[in-house]
């Protein structure tokens, strides 16, 4: 089991990808889509804990998160707000096919912000992994937390399906 998840953080090579968290009401699972699934962004590897799965593509980019934990079990923190200063970046994950430490899961009262907290960090840096997904690191570029903001309720995958369809129609030059 690895305790430090190491990241390569460089200046962005294109626009910040689309991303969003979708809480599946029928399954009580949070699905987080990061960018689109394209030929260049297909599942290759993973990092996992007992209830968190991070899917990574062949280039070391995080493409999907699955949190198999009912939001009733998320720890509510009244003053939890998303980071205000977040830098764009190209983020690659170095660790593959391994178990990671179990993160602590925090949320706000509305349950539309989630923080997967891996380690304490007294001097955090924040980077956009996608427009609604933020990576928090320490100065050594080790993962401290993953933030998902603006989570929407979904039933039977309708919202995530509509999100994927809309984003496929956006035909970005950078895809």
**How much helical structure, as a percent, in the residues?**
under 10%
H/E series: EEEEEEEEEEEEEEEEH
Average pLDDT over all residues? 92
Number of helical segments with 4 or more residues: 1
Uncertain regions spanning at least 5 consecutive residues: none
Beginning-to-end CA distance, first to last residue: 34 Å
**Biggest beta-sheet profile:** 7 strands, mixed
| Global structural class | mainly beta
Question: What percent of residues are in strands?
Answer: 35-45%
Topology, number of strands: 16
Radius of gyration: 15 Å
Shape: globular
Q: Total domains, how many?
A: 1
Strand arrangement in the largest pleated sheet:
10-4-5-6-3-2-16
List the topology elements.
Blueprint: E1 7-10, E2 19-24, E3 29-34, E4 43-48, E5 52-57, E6 62-67, E7 75-76, E8 87-88, E9 90-93, E10 98-99, E11 104-107, E12 113-117, E13 125-130, E14 133-137, E15 143-149, E16 152-154, H1 158-168
Parallel strand pairs: 2-16, 4-10, 7-11, 8-13
Antiparallel strand pairs: 1-9, 2-3, 3-6, 4-5, 5-6, 11-12, 12-15, 13-14, 14-15
Question: What does the model show?
Answer:
The chain is mainly beta and 175 residues long. It has one domain. 6% of the residues lie in helices and 42% in strands. The chain has one helix and 16 strands. The strands form three sheets. The protein has a seven-stranded mixed β-sheet with strand order 10-4-5-6-3-2-16, covered by helices on one side. A hairpin with a 3-residue loop joins strand 4 (43-48) and strand 5 (52-57). The longest helix is centred in the last third of the chain and has 11 residues, at 158-168. The model has no long low-confidence stretch (mean pLDDT 92).
